[in-house]
Fold these 2 entries.
Entry 1:
Amino acid sequence: MKGLDTNVLVRYLVRDDKRQAEKASAYIRDAIAEGESCFINHIVLCELVWVLETAYGFSRKEIADVLEKILITKQFEIEQKDIVRQAVRDYNQGKGDLADYLIGRINHECGCDRTATFDRSLKDMPVFEILE
């Protein structure tokens, strides 16, 4: 398995730098040809969302669509894919950041009944407890 950093994934997806996009594509293509998958961890996904939002102006819906496509791409191995899938669904329907939803879902999976937060944008999520 080969790990991907955020900048490689961004170049692969956005293709805004032709040279780097080709290198990223070749790396992923070569890994697949060797029978490997490309691993994407939670931090890379959170950074990806931030970059797509701030540097490229992607909408929440566009970002959720990109994340859904990553989740179903067989060449990518996603850290705790089922939890990420739930967090992406939460992100698509809610007002919080993907990182917040991942935190809540991971904590819940680890046995926490609720995750305490001051972030009021998460008030509709049952895995969070808003501290007033």
Entry 2:
Amino acid sequence: MMDLTLPPKVTERAFRRLHEIGAGDSGKALRIAVEGGGCSGFQYDISLDDPAPGDLVLDAPVGAFSGERVVIDEVSLPFLENAVIDFTEELIGARFVVENPNATSSCGCGTSFSM
């Protein structure tokens, strides 16, 4: 049986927010990285950054948000298989979030998880 790795998906809300803050216009992309640490073993590092060689680049579909990109480095990619990258606005604030089906538990902060 062939092992199929599904890349993360990015919601329209996330691409819209990147467009609103002018990420693509400034040549930046939203970088999603997974690092060791946090209160559950792993944590997400979410930042605006320049794409680097070896990154998986997820481009916005052609249309209103063309030019917006999300990038993920090769080391982080296996941790984000089939995840959904979204943007949420709640009473406690607005932020990019990762809905990760590979995480067995997560912390209340929303940036830390275990597998």
